[in-house]
Amino acid sequence: MLSFDELGLLKQQPDMTKDDIAWIDLAQVSSDAAWQLEALRRDLDNWSADYPGHRATAIATALRPALCASPSPASIALLLPMTSPFTKAASAFHDGFMHLHDGDRPASRPLVSLYDFGEDTESIGDVYRTAVEAGADLVIGPLGRDAVSNLMAHSTMTVPTLLLGSDNTPKAPNAFFVDLSRRSEAQSLVTHARSRGLKHALVLYTLTQATKAAADAATQAWQDQGGIITDTVIVDSTRSDFSEMISRMLGLSQAEEQTKTLQSVLTDALPITVLPRIRQDLDVIFLFADQNTARLLKPQIDFHHAGKLPIYSQNAVFTGTPDPVNDLDLEGILFSDMPWFVRRTGRFERSDNTLTGTARYQGSGIDRLFALGMDAYRLGCQIPKSPANSAWRYVGASGTFSLQNDGIIQRHPDWVIFRQGIPELFAPVIAR
């Protein structure tokens, strides 16, 4: 969690022993080499030579990236919509993939061929077969829900294939899924909230196709996991004043009416003072909205006495560029995101050594695709070596990945919360 320079200052403390310094050196190696695979292997080997038999040797071994290719270099086909409305996302993914590829050992890195299927998702099966007939041992892609669905519906996976889209398709041999959908993100919000013992939820969403789909997925998952939906409210994103809506959904309007009725009975001779209190059957709020709407809504929720309720939202509330002034309005909102996007220290510190090839995407949403591209390279090295039903785990730039028996590759992101307008890692107390 410390920066490279902070680790250097720590080593200068007079009470540091050689054993302590070895730990710090290992953290610096992991931070400095980070995503340059061959440099990371070399520096970890040098660390092991400098500190033979140290207690952290097992950690250094685990951090050392395995070589990707077999004795005869593997051939990987990338299926991406390079010439389509998703050009920027596809390019970021490709650049992330090649960033790790180019930093790997030349003799061991696989051969990579790029296949552009553009906007024509209907012919993705033909593109896939062309890639395999050209000698691809592994296919990564297609990228995108529609292309994945079409490929799965009309083609057989004849080589290991890493599909980058929704997993809401029949499972098949050689098919491995990384689900990128908002629906999957919404379901992860539910799982996280339920793990904290939260049960009664209020769901808010703006009326767009994406936010409604996410809200519907969260609602279903919440009920499937034993949660109770107390209310579902549509947020009018064209408005800026949500006082009436918030008062109604928090039960404040009803309490106010009851107070007025009681006051009319007692007359002015006995004035009533009532402290506002929100309804008691609420544990958590799920908010599915764009950043601007969230910035307007959250302070008004706080003003209406619900500031202590946990509020979960999607990573659309964070652009990737810290904005402490404007994001103060998002104070306390929880969301999940890629470590590459929200961390600034350790392996995720953007030093001069790591900025080459990555700076063009930093601070924009498509930087998430760059991180996913880097992880796809490492996953592509792992999948062909994994026997059927094997379990493995990889800690990457876009999250921690683990393989399930059904071919689904689970991605576990970081959980962060806005504090003083800055996303900080969130570590809640997990209920037993």
Count every beta strand, where a strand is a DSSP E run of 2 or more residues: 15
Q: Judging by the overall fold, what is the CATH architecture of the largest domain? A: 3-Layer(aba) Sandwich
Biggest β-sheet: strands ordered side by side in the sheet: 7-6-8-9-10-14-15
Beta-strand percentage?
15-25%
Which range best describes the helical content: under 10%, 10-25%, 25-40%, 40-55%, 55-70% or over 70%?
A: 40-55%
Number of helices: 15
User: Considering the protein shown, what is the CATH homologous superfamily of the largest domain?
Assistant: Response regulator
Keywords:
432 residues; alpha/beta; Rossmann fold; 3 domains; 5-stranded parallel sheet; 15 helices; 15 strands; globular
Please provide a written account of the structure.
This protein has 432 residues and is an alpha/beta fold. The chain folds into three domains: 4-63, no CATH class; 75-180 and 345-412, Rossmann fold (3-Layer(aba) Sandwich), CATH 3.40.50.2300; 184-338 and 415-425, Rossmann fold (3-Layer(aba) Sandwich). It is 40% helix and 17% strand. It is built from 15 helices and 15 strands. It has helices at 4-11, 18-33, 37-50, 57-63, 87-102, 124-133, 145-154, 182-195, 209-224, 243-249, 252-266, 291-306, 339-342, 352-355, 367-382, and strands at residues 75-80, 111-116, 138-143, 161-164, 175-178, 200-206, 228-235, 284-288, 311-313, 333-337, 393-395, 400-403, 409-412, 414-419, 422-425. The strands form three sheets. The protein has a seven-stranded mixed sheet with strand order 7-6-8-9-10-14-15. The protein has a five-stranded parallel sheet with strand order 2-1-3-4-5, sandwiched between helices. The longest helix is centred in the first third of the chain and has 16 residues, at 18-33. The radius of gyration is 25 Å and the shape is globular.
